[in-house]
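A note from the maintainers: we've had questions about how concatenated examples are separated. There is no special marker in the raw files; a new sequence line simply starts the next protein. For clarity in this README we add a label.
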Amino acid sequence: MATSLDTAAPQRASDQPASTSTPTRTRRLRVPSRDTALRMLSATSGGVLLYLSNPPRPEWWLAPIGIALLGLAVYRRRARAGFGYGFLFGLGYLVPLLHWTGVYVGPVAWWPLSAFEAAVIGLGTAAIAVVTGLRGWPLLAALLWVTDEALRSREPFDGLPWGKVGFSQVDGSFLSLGALGGTPLIGFAVVLTGFGLAALIIRLADPVTRRDVAALAGPVVAIVLPVLASIAAWPLVGTDPNAGTATVAAIQGNVPRLGLDFNAQRRAVLDYHVKETLKLAAEVNAGQVPRPDLVIWPENSSDIDPYVNSDAYAEISAAVAAINAPVEIGAVVTSQEPGPKNTAILWLPGQGPVQQYVKRQLQPFGETMPARSFFRLFSADVDRAGNFVAGTAPAIFPMGPARVGIDTCYEVAFDSVVRDSVPGSNLLAVPTNNATFGHTEMTYQQLAMDQERAVESGRSVVVAATSGVSAIIEPDGRVIRESELFTPDALVATVPLRSTTTIADRLGAWPEWVMVAFGLLALAFGIRARRRDARVRRGQAALAATRD
């Protein structure tokens, strides 16, 4: 119960006009009760623990504990309270997680984005609070969490999947579930475990239920079953080279300077990547490293359009000839209608550019600027955002023995985009540019996505970043080569090529939509049950009043 404190003293009777009988109005300040304060603390702490479970920290096991604290906060609360506690949970999670969005533009982007996404989480926890009065509520709550993540990953502005629980688990046993149902199934398992833990704590805290074995069985199953399922799923994570092997190279040329203006010296960025490729070619010719079958350059490695700039064309051609292997070049192409495009170009020795892929999932407030005139009212930095044109189809690059599916940077966060790149491929490449985010955790969060995608697709993944972290990842999610931030490097490794598809890719979005459907059904039952209970209480109150 909330208490109240008078913040204005009442008037004395002598001060009142004789003809006035209206009582004095006082302003009242509501103060959270001890129970409410504890729930607020529990929700916020749970969000912080979920953040701490994300890379670069390996404490993946903190995620279910954080979810358990959220469950304790919203248990048997009204939907409005569930929204509030979920909002606090979301702030505790997303404010530190998304810090990188404001590293060079300040809180004008970071705080509103975090607050908005926290509000979307609040919508989910409002629904979760409604179902906590039903039997088997941890299962129903986990389904609603998946439903909320599905919404957050799609709306608004095509959504923001950053922060999905599934991406926090690349160092833990739950990762194997990605091969069965992708990020939705991983997230479901983690959240079910967490809510099961909350239910167990609630039962143990109740003197009536803590000695009831049957009452404890449900929460224990909710905790143990996802863990056992994830362990049992590991044999389904394929690593055999059923399409052969390939020696791959990822070039990290670095950038002249940090910050939003890193690409002002576009020629320098191109020169750096040419230089690193020539250095690798010299090491290959000297027998120090094996010759790569294919080479991946980062996104924005040539912000000079090589189709119209002869100098850029000549430099790239010289580097490709020296390494004598197919090279994927990340370029900004301005010479093709209807506008500028973030493009991956397949460049062959002695032939030049032969194929290209245009990035399909563009980053809002970066590569595009929705409602530019409106957001300009808050910050002139919106005019730094581009007017890029999105591509319309995936592409597979034939590169030596490999058939390479391309997913550029931000695209790796989106389930459907990566899924479209798998058919016909036996290797995935993620050219990326994280230079505008400095030394923040952003690049490690994105690397975790790449690791999850390796397991989900059953493919090795080559990550080439302008400034790091570049990496080579095997199909089980293990990183076998990794660069340092803002350090020129060339990573070379031999990886398995795999043409078989995982159960997750064959099922596509179906596991997620099935969980969403059941989650919405659970919410409908929860609303109905609450209305029924309210009618019963009103009836009991009316009967009691009649007896009095």
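[label: protein 2]
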Amino acid sequence: MRERLPLYVLLASALTFLASLFLPWRETAAAIPGGSSVQGVLTLFEGGSVGGWVEVAGDVAVLLVIAIALATAAGLRRPRLGARLPLGGLGVALGYFAVAIAVGLHRLTQGAVGFTGRPPATPHTSWSYGFYLGLASAGIAALSGLALRRSELLRRREAAETAALILGVALLISFLLPWAGFPGESFDLHGIESAAAAIAALSLLLAAGWLHGAAGRRWRLSCAVANAILAGGTATATAVFGLHHRYGAWTGIGCAVSLALLEAARAWPVRLPARLHGLAAVRAGSAAVLIVALFLPWQQLDAHGVSGQSYDGWSSVTGAAAGSLCLLLLATPALPALPALESYVLDVVAAVVIFVSLAGTQFRESPSFFRIGYGAFVGFAAVGILLVTAVAPLRPGPVERGRALARIVPLGASVLCVAAVVVPSWFVLPQKWTFQASALYGSLVVPGVLLALYLVRLWVRTLRTPARTDHRLTVVPLVLLTLAALELIRFRNGPVIWGAVILVGLCLLLALFGWIEEGSGLEGVRVPETLRVDRLAETES
């Protein structure tokens, strides 16, 4: 029982933190009219207060709570499995992103009060009870995570490993500092408000213990280089429309580059991967081109003779997600110890195509103010080549007709889950439907797409032969359902989000099919005799 106590404490504190996100975190003296959309995340101000679920950090915190709930349930049921899960890292990450939410809220409410006509230097704002509850519960979760990793924290380290740990912590701190702002003004954008910084922080927090072990030795240099690229993407994404870099940007880039150089020295002599040939080489080249394209202008300001200001691809949440997946594609050939990644290439490429298309529609052209930048066209060309390299090697295999017919409905429902998340973000629906048709908002679109694509993959595997899924056919739709249900709770005071309602219905259907498939199999399902139309008595003439 004593060994399980940190798990129970971690689970209870994470769920308490989730409840605090729906409570007021920041209060203003008077209601702020209207709403504010920051980096694609809808933030509602009602009655002069704002909750904790805002911006990228709030979305990541919600995902961490769900991950903690799943991981602690697995750890309590199967202790050996729990020992391999990053429970400690999840708890520490929740504490970190709770601080990130507070940092973003402070900046957001200051800017909002400034727009109401009050001087930005003296805004009439204060922290509310939701903030104290959330910060306290997240702090307990972080302490529980540290308790689970106490043996790792207390072990002796070499000088190079200690230096890498210090640089990693310094990089995490730098993301909480101002990265860009207007000259002579107190308005600042912090690094953690960018999706690229959130992805880099997650990779550092969740993989820190594993990277310093023997199993993660091959990943150290690749991860350090990827974090340096993500830090560069954060710097270009925050310094837009006249904002200048602050000290946080230079500190973060310095720490990220130093960490990459240190890992290169630790790995010296660096073992280069085998030379790529054919489609693999083209795939790696197109992924590298897409990463470069994200640093180029994707949307440029062109209004009343004003030009030169632009957004790059890293400014979009889905653009940053596409870039991160491309970094994973580039790392795969260099890591022969994990050949299983090769089997997920098609899934990763499909996600990259969807994310780039979403970024392209977000940076759509407006005749009065904006025009599409050349970086978007370079990115679209790279994605097209990437898709060809993933689809060209595919060959149709034999499929048993009866087995496929029994699973065509759940497979179609999985495809509809992808559509429910993606289609509203393409802005192809009437404008008045855009808000209510969206099943997921902000950064949650990224895990929503990944989970839905994974569901498609799982059901495609079952078309040919029985596949071992370890309850994933049931758990994955329930996780996706949880995201949609939380969105309904989040916007409970507004109009009904019927896009989320549709996604909840699809996930319930898929969970039922998954439970049947993992039990007796869908072939064993029989229509009750009373419902079969071919058994109805004929009408007497």
